[in-house]
Amino acid sequence: MLVGRDREQQILVRLLGDARAGHSGVLAIAGEPGIGKSALLDYAEEQAGGLNVLRARGVQSEAQIPFAGLFELLRPALPWIDQIPGPQAAALESALALRPVPSAPGRFAVGAATLSLLAAYSEQFPVAVLVDDAHWLDGSSADALLFAFRRLDADPVAVVLAVRQGDPSLLDGADLPTLRLAGLDRASAAELLKRQGDKPLSQDLADRLHRDTGGNPLALLELGRERERLVGLPLDAPLATVISVARVYLQRTQALPQRTRDALVLASAIDGGEVPVLARAAPMLGLDLSDLVPAEVAGLITVHDSRVEFRHPLARSAIYGDAPANQRRELHRALASALPDSEVDRRAWHLAVASFGPDDAVSSALEQAGQRAYQRSAYEVSSRAFERAALLAPEEARQGRLLYSSADAAWLGGLPDRAVALLGQADRHVSRGDLAIEIQHLRGHIAIHRGPVAEGQEILLAAAERAAPIYPERAVVMLAEVAYACFYAGDAGAMRLAAERAASIAPPAPNGRIEFFTLITRGMALIFAGEDEPGAPAVRAAVELLEHSDELRDDPRLLAWAAMGSIWLREADTGRALLYRALETARRKSAVGVLPFLLTHVAVDEAGTDRWAGAQAGYHEAISLARENGQYSDLGVALGFSSRLEARLGRSERTRKHAHEALSLARKLGLGVAEVWAIAALGDLELGLGRPEAALAHFEEQQAVLRSRSIQDPDLSPVPELVEIYLRLARGPDAVTMAAEFSRDAEIKGQPWALARAARCRALLAADGESDPHFDTALALHGQTADAFETARTHLAYGARLRRERHRVRAREQLRAAVEVFDHLGADPWAETARTELAATGETARRRDVTTLNDLTPQELQIALSLAKGRTTRETAAALFLSPKTIEYHLRSVYRKLSVGSRSELTAAMERLTAG
User: Fold this and answer.
1) Which of 175, 202, 522, 719 lies 20 to 30 angstroms, CA to CA, from 824?
2) 452 preceded by cis ω (within 30°)?
3) Tens digits of residue pLDDT in 778-808
């Protein structure tokens, strides 16, 4: 029975009760060593009647074993693995070394599979997941479990993690609900000591123990056993400085035979304390298993299920840490020899600990361990193996290569700070050649994705120049990355220079990859600089090259680049199929790292059509994944784009929140394009709400930012909005000047989207009775694009002009069209403006049906859209990295909000609500 933990016990009982009722819950119990975390986990297991219990413990010495903790935890659930999606099952089986796979699964594929397996296992009975010493989990296990735990929602799964406060781990920053354990109060401490033995403690000694241990239960119990030695201490002597818990354990070993003390050190050095391994290692050191018996009698260890377990991790660490270094090295050599042949990775780590100075054979063994971990997506473990192998490598060149491999694994494992530090070390060992270029390529790639973007541009430009004479293909790829970084940064001049340099490096008869990157980079740079005439054909040629090459189209490294066609041309069809195929491929492969980029670009594409529901869902997912992955550049861009759509929907609070966060990231990381879109979002919000003066300040700021960055692309220009505002504010001459400049830029670009907006400007400025041809031209040009919002804006402007000119019947036709489109999009402020104009003609438009997609949350939208495409619940769960029960939970809400009762009705409703 636990003492003084009534509140904590109630919390655990409630958590388990919620799981029985079908609800998920995650709780981290944090505290110092000995505070009672493990006791509370034991209590949770006792109270888990009717639940399947999955339990594991992080072991400090197993932190280098790939997925050691995950395998221990999921072992009872593995028979259910055939119930999860095939690609996820393959990823999990590969991670747990149950079967080989041809290529490493993505970092998050294992986390997605863990979630699916927990969900499948919970379908029979609710599940309690209990992980002790979670701070010592190997990084690959912690990564997978955190990915799964964050997505538990409507599954009957209760998770309790015990974490040592202050110890660094991958759980840091996980933002899990946390119960922090304090020491016992005075009364509870006295009760605990009273139960310890037959002889009661004096009140003075009990008070001193409570004062000096802070109520730590383990310290109270262990020091309480030393009561005879403590009685004679001076009253003012602090007990904790006289004798610590760790020293108590060491002092108890002093009374044991020397052979027993040596055997305890051996047991403390082995991962998991397997008795068979100890039995083989002991004779190599002149010891025997029977030497451990006195330690068992003394209560320092227990032997259970052929494993030696120490009374407490502190006992183990104290005994191991007190042994001389040369003795520890000798023990690890013996353990390496005693391990079975199948335990090659553990053997390599024991040999590494046993090494004194460089050792090529041990370094090679660790390198192979790192490669095996890499193939299983255990990137954090792989990184540490490569790093240790580098420290043991005799040759400097090999040290540099291994440090680079360590950095690469760290980046893939979501450890960017570690990756950057390792690249710095690798750079000191390598001065020239292929590896030096690879080091700089990775440094630049990391800087682009996490910022500052300008730093990444600078690094990659220098690396490309070094690579160009020897490795032209690599140089072209790096320059393409520079070009896209320039787009993120809003630096049109640098983007063009990068594209021109890529073209100059490409050989006369380039292979498919070089040709693709050269074309796409040139096209993007020219369009960004406002030169669409030569730029658009280059983008179309690049898209065509991808469309006709299975080898290039299926290259995962080109997934993100498949987005460029439809985004940069704003044409109805160019490259759109490639973009959506790339997204589906990324989902199928659980390529979470590239998903924020792809989702953002898919959302940008959908926001430029009438599929705003899909755009909202895509932005929401992109923002969530980028935030979780630490991809701050992608996060800033997604927030900027999302805020503009939210502004047009009239969601003031969300627009301001996302726009201001985007601006903060943009100015910190040099994300010029995010800055432009976030400012535009604030302008759109004010304009839609009927506040032209407030909108004017934002759009003029946007124009100033574009000019300061030499961005000439009229697609990013706010001039059509400024023309409208200037006319409202009686600043006609300013409107005329700006419209003329914009029309010239649109003519140079030559694309229908910009030309339509230019025609609308001319219509707004035309004299009474002369605007119709310009409006008609604008609507004809809009018909060549997919942008429903801009088309509706022109219908609104046309109808308002006709009404003012007293052509009420013709005005109603235009205004009805505007109302219909704005209602369909959910652009409420604009729909109300169009209704007001229509009412002024003498006609009242029917209010939109309250049942629209805008009534759904972003996650509900994702789920509804996915299911409406014909995916099953399980397929949708796999695509969105959720559990089937979570899908069903949100689906019930979707049914209620859309007033449907079946999948067929949902599909029909989604088709009706998304039909353009």
Assistant:
1) 719
2) yes
3) 999 999 988 999 999 999 999 999 999 999 9
Report whether pLDDT(241) > 50.
no
Q: What angle do CA 602, 606, 609 make, to 5 degrees?
A: 150
Q: Residue 725 CA to chain centroid, in angstroms?
A: 41
pLDDT per residue as tens digits for the range 662-694: 999 999 999 998 999 999 999 999 999 999 999
Region for 306 from its dihedrals, namely left if φ exceeds 0, alpha if ψ lies in -120 to 50, beta otherwise? left
- The sign of the dihedral angle between the CA atoms of 285, 287, 293, 294 is negative
Residues in the chain: 916
Place of tokens 């191991």: 320
Helix (H) or strand (E) holding 769: none
Instruction: List all residues 6 or more positions away from 684 whose beta carbon is below 8 Å from its beta carbon.
Output: 644, 647, 648, 695, 721
Query: CB atoms < 10 A from the CB of 262, how many?
Result: 19
Q: Tell me how far apart the alpha carbons of residues 811 and 795 are, in angstroms, rounded to a whole number.
A: 9
Task: Tell me the backbone φ, ψ of residue 638, rounded to 5 degrees.
Answer: -60, -40
Give the residue from 589, 543, 549 showing the smallest Cα distance to 566: 543
- 3-class DSSP assignment, residue 31: strand
Describe the strand order of the beta sheet including 25-31 as a list of residue ranges.
52-57, 127-132, 157-164, 25-31, 178-180
pLDDT of 523: 87
Indicate yes or no: pTM above 0.85: no
- Give the C-alpha separation, 445 to 789, whole Å: 36
CA distances from 909 to 18, 613, 895 (A): 34, 13, 10
Spatial contact of 71 and 143, defined as CB atoms under 8 Å apart:
no
